[in-house]
Design a protein that fits this description.
- The protein is α+β, with helices and mostly antiparallel strands.
- The chain has two domains: 3-103, N-terminal domain of the delta subunit of the F1F0-ATP synthase (Peroxidase, domain 1, Orthogonal Bundle), CATH 1.10.520; 106-183, Glutaredoxin, CATH 3.40.30.
- The chain contains eight helices and four strands.
Length: 184
């Protein structure tokens, strides 16, 4: 079975547990903390994926990292994942859980690449346009891409909105090529 399918099943189980116990918002915050913490630590990722490190040590490490920071239910879920020897996909499980949360909350995550740092007013305008276009709430993560001449590129899931100068020049070049070939 693929990692995606397994991680989705675990994430879906956590979602059902959170909804049944009416602790969805707490578990969602826990999941965000866990995903971000684990994703940013190469050392912890290596330990979780290592077959040499014993499960008890992995469990102890995660308990120490997240003690008093996450709910008991979330901690019990992590312990359960380790018990089932699936700690190597723990990051993927919480990533899938966050995707399920976004779907439940009607939220889209957008990656916006810009040529330079943009002001908050421009960020707000981009966000408003995206929300108008998608009819959903949008959270945008902004990064600077030095390869862009100007403008921006937005990625939402598998959709790409390319409003970069480079793309506009490519479209203009294509249009001129077509007109030249028609006139010849």
């Amino acid at each position: 079975m693929s990692i995606y399918r397994v991680s989705y099943r675990y994430a879906n189980s956590l979602m059902q547990l959170a909804e049944e116990k009416n602790i969805y918002s707490k578990v969602a915050k826990d999941a965000d903390l866990i995903f971000n913490s684990l994703s940013q630590s190469k050392e912890v990722k290596a330990i979780l994926k290592s077959p040499v490190v014993k499960s008890d040590l992995k469990k102890k490490l995660l308990n120490e990292i997240f003690s008093n920071k996450i709910s008991n239910e979330t901690q019990n879920f992590i312990d359960f994942v380790i018990l089932k020897n699936r700690e190597d996909i723990l990051i993927e499980i919480f990533k899938e859980f966050l995707v399920l949360c976004d779907k439940k909350d009607g939220v889209l995550r957008a990656k916006v690449k810009t040529a330079v740092e943009v002001e908050d007013t421009i960020k707000n305008k981009i966000k408003e346009k995206l929300e108008l276009k998608t009819q959903q709430k949008v959270f945008a993560n902004y990064t600077i891409d030095k390869n862009l001449i100007g403008g921006f590129i937005v990625e939402i899931g598998d959709q790409v909105f390319d409003a970069s100068i480079k793309h506009q020049l490519k479209l203009l070049r294509k249009k001129f090529s077509e007109e030249i070939s028609i006139n010849q």
